[in-house]
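Each letter names a residue; the fold follows as tokens. Both lines appear below:
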Amino acid sequence: MAPIVALFLSSVLIFSVFSPVNSLSYNYYEKTCPHAESIIAYAVKTATSKDKTVPAALLRLHFHDCFIRGCDASVLLKSKGSKKAEKDGPPNLSLHALYVIDSAKKELETWCPGVVSCADIVALAARDAVALSGGPSWDVPKGRKDGRTSKASETIKLPAPNFTISQLQQSFSQRGLSLDDLVALSGGHTLGFSHCASFQQRIQNFNATHDVDPSINPSFAAKLRGVCPKKGKSKNAGTTMDPSSTTFDNTYYKLVLQKKGLFSSDQALLSNPKTKNLVRKFATSTEAFSKAFVKSMIKMSSLTGGQEIRKDCRVVN
């Protein structure tokens, strides 16, 4: 009984920190900026036509924003001198394509100045990124405000690639997200690229007994060791998250079942009966995955915490 009570209290605590979901609405800009969504979609589409890595970057940007202080665009703020912002925290140094948000914001400020928040642009751009990659589309609730606080030190709260299932569960439940949400949102790893540092510990000097993580497919590990040698690799060395890394599909789950998940945290989804069953379900049905992903994205993107509408996404007003 005690753990259930504790979990309930932590959920209550989280929802008292973030604004309630019902402060957002689907038609928020209907009268004040009716073309907002098409302006953002155009910025995402234009950038993607020049750089196929943009959709993965925008989806990751949204996750990293929402997991710290809610979806308040605090991840976009520039550092001020010695006061380092989230953007410069270790897990965020490889974030890119922030210029897409700036480009959409600039255009929106021309059409409807001071109306559309940077946080809403990030949430809508993530949706557009998934849809452009062949994934589902959905209505995004809008009305988020932009945050005024951004601390690099808080990025330690982001789920790490070496997290165990219990660490992942705790990280998600602290944000009111369930095990179902964890498995569905992990499917975002169908898009993108990872540098060696995020999985190197799995393929070399894993522990005192094993050089390679026993939960990884041996031929996959050998391939990764070729890409990420102990010495002499370039700082940009790494690999795609899955072979169809610019297509939003359910390949990620099929790979996890074959022990070919790139991160320990991917493979950890098989270490719990409930999450393992969901991995199996999503591996066999793209429709089930898409439906669950949309539901969890709406839930995650409804964690809000900002106070203003920034004129420039990189600095507070």
In short: Residues 178 and 260 are 24 Å apart (CA to CA). Residues 1-22 have pLDDT under 50 and may be disordered. Residues 2-17 form the longest helix (16 residues). The chain is about 45% helix and 0% strand.
